Amino acid sequence: MKQYLNIIIILITIFLSFNVNGQVSSPTIVKGFVIDSHSEEPLPYATIVFENTNTGTTSNEEGFFILTGIQKSSKIHISSMGYEDTTINIIVGERQTINIKLMPKTILLEEANLSFKRSRYKNKDNPAVELIKKVIENKDNNRKENMDFLSYEKYDKTQFALSNLSERFMNRKSLKKFAFIFENIDTTKLEGALILPIYIKETLSDFYSQKSPEKTKEIIKADKMVSFDGYLNNQGMSQYLNYMYQDIDIYDNTVTFVTNIFLSPIANTATTFYKYFILDTISIAEASYIKVFFSPRNKTDMLFNGYLYITADSNYAIKKLEMSVNENINLNWVKDVSIIQEFEKAQNNSWFLKFDEISIDFGLSENSMGIFGQRSVYYNKFKINEVISDTLLNGAKVIQLEDADNRNSDFWEVNRPVVLSKSEKGIYAITDSIQEIPAFKRTMDVFMLLFAGYKDFGKFEIGPINTFYSYNSIEGPRLRFGGRTTPQFSEKINFETYLAYGLFDNKFKNYLSTTYSFTGNNIYHFPVKSIKLSYQNETQIPGQELQFIQEDNILLSIKRGVNDKLLYNKTIKLESLNEFENHFSYTLGYNYTKQTPAGSLYFNTDSNPPVNNDEQLLIISELYMNLRFAPHEKFYQGKQYRTPMPNRFPIISLNYTVGSTSLGNNYNYQNLKLNIYKRFYPGILGYTDVVWEGGVIFGKVSYPLLYMHRANQTYAYQLASYNLMNFLEFVSDNYTSLNIDHHFYGFIFNKIPVLKKLKLREVASVKILYGTLSKDNNPEYSPDLFKFPVDYLGNKTTFFLEKDPYIEGSVGVENIFKFFRVDLVKRFTYLDNPNVSDIGIRVRFRFDF
After folding, report:
1. What CATH number is given for 18-109 in this structure?
2. Which among 353, 438, 742, 788 is least buried, having the fewest CB atoms inside 10 angstroms?
């Protein structure tokens, strides 16, 4: 979520900052339906143009069209094969809706009595379907992966602009001295509409691939982008743009588009979900191609519509692709889409992608100002089946030359395969000027404080502000203040600190750390190689583990049930983190903790009755190693956390810990835990996140050192936790768990008329936990171990899993107001434990397309 919020921050700020007194003509916008005047059936593919201009559009399969332009023409001309042309008057410079009826050319109504019925679509005996089946059969022969060796140069240009600019917005009277910004308005990127470019990124690289064994390498030779230093992480921004505008391989069965999964129109099962129509045979460069229109059978499914240009020979290859998405699908923030791909034939009869362009008009509604984003990729300098050395292909799949970020304008002028337009060239200069505007800086500071949680003072920043106040029943109202140094202070060394105080327990908590980077970059720049030394005197709720949020976040202060268990930890930690380009990393560390219980927790044994829990102490002295492998991982580096962007590859984490009395620990033990995450994409049914986890402890330990299974007593839905389990309700010394979270993406709701307009989406999950506790670690059999916690009546509140697993499931609705997910959670087992709920409502804030 944070990665997109940062983009929103930039755009909203520009909205607020650009109040300019300039006179710009408002575009003329005409929309409506084209229908048969006799049958009133919609007419697809009708042509609508401004009279005496080249600006026009065509109606879609439902006969709907939108025509925009800044031309002064007061008429539009409408034509369709088999119908009489017509011309209609329009109002220049305004939005208007006009429904157009065309008269069939060959029908004399006074002499003919015809019944107009749309014929039912069938796959059987349909030449278009037979053609598509031939394309599917020949996919492997026509894709570039069929080449033994392939190399080429790739130029990648991504840009964003404010779109659908209104006259009211452009004619504001304040900030007149910044009127130069509107000199960069572009009228060519979005058909007939005015856009204001605000961001551009260019990358020039060499790409190499080998078929067997499969290897790829990309060497980035030059990289240039608009930079918002201090507000956005440029590396993370680049990764997020690549994630949102992923390469589309039409020959794959599924296509990732704006983080959603669509079925390709030439997938192996495509003829089950798409309709196909042969429109025409055309010539391109003296070769013949068959133009095929395709559209979804069900207009609410995640499918494309558009045109395929297929070779009229035995290769059945795709020469060109033009497609969009249906306006009826459950896709947030997207008003219009254009995807264009052009292919070129290689010497071995395979086809490679020559040009690829994705254009998306984002916005809250059709008539609102929005954001126009476009990614254009040009491929050239192809070398087919020329042997590539292993030396070049080995190592990291993507590397960037050291001077790639410092290429001068002369280099770009010579090496760009296409010339930048005037407005594109102006983005760099205008953005530099924008960042000098005081209003821009003030607004950005406010948004960064609200969304990222930090206020930047140059070499130091304070935050996160959402932790400055929180509450729990033992500390009471808790006040905290802290901050950290920024890369402006030092690229090598980072300091972080905070001081907190609980008004009920009257105790100060504090934290101090220093991190040293061994690379030429700061600790937020991947790959990281660093060493960190920290001291923390802090509280911990046993059994609470959070993702991408801190435990003393104010939003988590409200909790259900009894929340009277707390641990005080005084911890010294030394750890070294080493990351590699292939997204393998390892962490080596040492942790020394003095732990005392609070609230209803006691560290007492049968021979040691309860006393003041401040006088009880557990010494934890451990060496640990964490291994993590996340192939092809992309993430956005925020102020506090890395926010990962899911892909098709698993993420594997292995943690190994050794505690020893020779290190000062109270116990001897080894702890091993494995976690595997994978996202699956079952076609048009949405996607499924699956997490398997297992762990085992070797040795004899008391309950604070057992696995305290993740519990959640807040009202927020937490993906990795058991949302109806109480804190410290279950412990184990070996366990296995499976969490399944499936998002249907409106597959069912989109087919229900009442719910379809609300764009709601279904979600369902199930969480299963098996665990055991050996007699050696059970205080009922080992009286020298700490006894399990009890409530004030002496009833046990901590248990171990016996024969039955812990199971909970949920069904929910997400995309409520486009941001919220609400789940009805049901707990199925261990309902007799004290203070448990078998059912509950949980809410989660979530941004998605």
Report:
1. 2.60.40.1120
2. 438
Amino acid found at 496: E
Residue 742 has pLDDT above 50, yes or no: yes
- CA dist 90 and 100 (Å) reads 12
Contact predicate 83/103, CB 8 Å:
yes
Q: How confident is the model at residue 644 (pLDDT cuts 50, 70, 90)?
A: confident
| Residue 20 in this model has a pLDDT that exceeds 60 | no
Determine the longest span between alpha carbons in the chain, in angstroms.
Answer: 108
Q: Number of helices (H) and strands (E) in the chain: give both, helices first.
A: 11, 43
Q: What is the DSSP string of 66-122?
A: EEEE-----EEEEE-TTB--EEEE--TTSEEE--EEE-BSS--TTT------PPPP-
Contact between 47 and 79 (Cβ < 8 Å): yes
Tell me the range of 454-468, 548-562, 664-678 where mean pLDDT is highest: 664-678
CA–CA distance, 288 with 256 (Å, rounded to integer) = 30
User: Residues 6 or more apart from 26 whose CB is under 8 A from it?
Assistant: 93, 94, 166, 167
Structure tokens at 39: 């049958």
Return d(Cα 321, Cα 307) in angstroms, integer: 6
Query: Do the beta carbons of residue 759 and residue 815 sit within 8 Å?
Result: yes
Query: Domain coordinates of the chain in residue numbers?
Result: 18-109, 453-845
Q: Tokens for 22?
A: 């300039």
SS3 212: coil
Q: Is 821 helix (H, G, I), strand (E, B) or coil?
A: strand
C-alpha 202/C-alpha 222 separation (Å) is 8
Please answer whether residues 660 and 24 qualify as being in contact, where contact means their C-beta atoms are separated by less than 8 angstroms. no
What DSSP string describes 475-487?
Answer: TEEEEEEEEEE-T
Q: Where are the beta strands (DSSP E) in 473-607?
A: 476-485, 493-502, 507-517, 529-540, 565-579, 584-599
Q: Phi/psi zone of residue 119: left (φ > 0), alpha (ψ -120 to 50 degrees), beta?
A: beta
Q: Strand, coil or helix: what is 588?
A: strand
- Which residues have CB under 8 Å from 739's CB, separation 6+? 689, 690, 691, 693, 719, 720, 765, 766, 767, 768
Burial (CB count within 10 angstroms: exposed 0-12, middle 13-18, buried 19+), residue 619: middle
Question: Which 8-state DSSP code applies to residue 789?
Answer: P
| Interatomic CA distance for residues 717 and 721, integer angstroms | 8
Query: Distance between CA 689 and CA 694 in Å, rounded?
Result: 17
Band the pLDDT of 562: cuts 50, 70, 90.
Answer: confident
pLDDT per residue as tens digits for the range 529-556: 999 999 999 999 998 886 655 655 656 6
Q: Where are the alpha helices (DSSP H) in 327-421?
A: 390-393, 409-415
247/508 Cα distance (integer angstroms): 52
* Tokens matching residue 515: 């991190």
Whole-model pTM? 0.77
Residue located via tokens 């609200």: 450
Q: Going by C-beta distance under 8 Å and a sequence separation of 6 or more, which residues neighbour residue 239?
A: 634, 635, 636, 645
Whether the ω angle into residue 464 lies within 30 degrees of 0, i.e. cis, is yes
Dist CA 294 CA 326 (whole Å)? 11
**Strands 28-36 vs 95-97: parallel, antiparallel or unpaired:** parallel
Most confidently predicted of 11-15, 683-687, 692-696: 692-696
Indicate the CATH number for domain 453-845.
2.40.160.50
